[in-house]
Amino acid sequence: MGLGLPEELQGYHTLVPLEPSLPGIERKKFGNWYSTVYRAVRTSDGIPHVLRRIENFRLSNQAAFAPVEIWSQIQHPSIIPIREAFTTKAFNDNSLVVSYAYYPNARTLYEVHMKPKPPPTYQQTTYYGRHHHQQQQQQQTIPERTLWSYIIQIASAIKKVHERGQAVRMIDVTKILVTGQNRVRISSCSIFDILLYGAPQQDVTYFQHEDLQKFGKLVFALCTNNMSAANQANLQKSVDSMKKVYSLDVQAFALYLCSKIPKTIDSVLEMLRPRILQEHDEALMATDRLENELMGELENARLFRLMCKFGFINERPEFARDPRWSETGDRYIVKLFRDYVFHQVDGNGNPVLDLSHVLTCLNKLDAGTDEKIMLVARDEQSCLVVTYKDVKQCIASAFE
């Protein structure tokens, strides 16, 4: 591909960059270290993973990998799981590589909601009209219900991390991924713990409180489409802007997070309690919808298996002279039943294309009911009266 990437990297292969090449200043995502993200396939299981590479990082102590073990035990639906971490010189430097679970087509909150859209071309403006593009710009505002869903998912993840005595340190619109419809997950956890291992740092309580302040800044940024909305110089303007679109509850919640009032994630969740119940109810309804759709797919799978058996059994010309396979006995019944299901004709000899008849027959066959049907030979000189149970046994016998 001409990208100068290693063919194999500590048990991973087929590396593909997931981010566009940007100027150096835009790639400084972890303090003073440049960062690049790749998708790679792990050789041991053949599953794609995400590799985040920190360039020009020299590991001074092997104990710096201790946080990886702690984070690998933190399992939460809104935190992207960490797999492992290692150092390598495969990129012609000293690089730290951290492996995470891979979510296809994931994008950051910044890319989904805040990244400026390219201006419309002359052809687009001519075809759709200027009003259409103005509406598109207005649609960038996140619906309040979606915003509360994001907030609850992130708060729940913070709660899990703080319970384990850790701090997230990744509450940022460029580090939180949208992996599905209104589903967000915090990425790149544990990296700061590795990079700054052994350096003089504040107590973990300080970083936990910083998590909550960054959480507030994130809410302001999403509401106003401005990364620096929570800065002191912009705060009043940001609050005024929020009032035009969002309820006072959103404003009060964001201001509480950004305030210097001593707080914990438990007090934050207390403010969210009514919203959490609504989120829980909607999650249960979504689960019910998915289960109903799954049931429909299971029904399709049962009927598809029956259709495959018909195809395997009926009309095998290569076995026409084999007495064990000729279309007599069980196989003859299966053949007539196939005609009964799919080759019905009306009084004028025209094909009857009745899908409900087909589905009814196949479902009765799968259930093996005792209902009797009459199967007529193609020359209409003979007929057989059998039950669906009999036909099911014939199919099983022929297929085996």
Radius of gyration in whole Å, from Cα? 31 Å
N-to-C CA distance: 50 Å
Give a count of the beta strands, DSSP E runs of length 2 or more.
Answer: 12
- Integer average pLDDT: 88
Low-confidence stretches: none
Q: How large is the share of residues in beta strands?
A: 15-25%
N-to-C order of helices and strands:
EEEEEHEEEHHHHEEHHHHHHHEEH
Task: Give the count of helical stretches.
Answer: 13
Helix content: 40-55%
Keywords: ATP-binding, Coiled coil, Cytoplasm, mRNA processing, Nucleotide-binding
Domain Pan3 C-terminal knob: 265-400
Subcellular location: Cytoplasm
Organism: Gymnopilus junonius (Spectacular rustgill mushroom)
Word description of this protein:
The chain is α+β, with helices and mostly antiparallel strands and 400 residues long. It has helices spanning 66-72, 109-114, 122-128, 130-138, 144-163, 191-195, 204-224, 235-243, 248-258, 265-313, 330-342, 355-367, 388-399, and strands at 8-9, 12-17, 28-30, 33-42, 48-54, 82-88, 95-101, 107-108, 176-180, 183-186, 372-376, 383-387. Strands 1, 2, 3, 4, 5, 6 and 7 form a 7-stranded antiparallel sheet that branches. Strands 8-9-10 form a 3-stranded antiparallel sheet. One of its GO terms (molecular function) is poly(A) binding. Residues 265-400 form the Pan3 C-terminal knob domain. Its main location: cytoplasm.
